[in-house]
Amino acid sequence: MLSKSVLSLAVLLLLSSGCGTEPSGADGGPAPLPDDTYQRVLSQGVDPALVHTIALSGFELAEQSAGVRGDSDYAAVYVPDEPPYTTEVHLDVKEGSYDRATCERTPLGGPSGGLPAPVESCEADGTGWYRTGGGWHEYVVSRDGHHLTVGAPTAAVDRDSLTRAALGARRQDGTTPAVLPPLSPVTRGDLPTTGDGAPVDPYGESPPGG
Q1: Per-residue pLDDT tens digits for 131-169
Q2: Is the pLDDT assigned to residue 25 strictly greater than 50?
Q3: How many alpha carbons fall within 13 Å on the CB side of residue 73?
Q4: pLDDT higher at 170 or 193
Q5: Most CB atoms closer than 10 Å: which of 36, 51, 114, 209?
Q6: How is the chain split into domains, by residue range?
């Protein structure tokens, strides 16, 4: 499992060595991981379906940061492709669904080595969830069986760029899974607003004809 301190060290190693990956593929979209990096990631136990890359103008992947998060989830850090090297963009891909409750309750990741930030706002915009907190913002999209988050400092990356990066994320094979619309609680018309919350029986104790 990669801790924030390990991710921060990986970023520093990248900047000192000057190595990274091309920021985009031949068509301008995200380039796949180099094969040796991809094989290293898989050897750590990452689910291959969760390995994604993003394209964000002015940033490139810090290859050493790509790896497992938790048991089999995927995480990576993107850094500026020219000085000053003071900004991080985080990519996290996790198994499971994502809904409003998750958006409102889960702290934002924040930069490597920093503390998670409490949620200040959570907004569904039709294709994903946009949320902010502690000078950090994230865009989260749900796909089949997983959700993908791109996060960055609000002062360094604008919302539109963050959103485009998340929606344009690709798997290692170059495919872009369909985005699922944001999940919200279903409102039931037979649940009362007062009392014990039991469903309302419009016919009393017996159905029609009973």
Answers
A1: 999 999 999 999 989 999 999 999 999 999 999 999 999
A2: yes
A3: 18
A4: 170
A5: 51
A6: 4-171
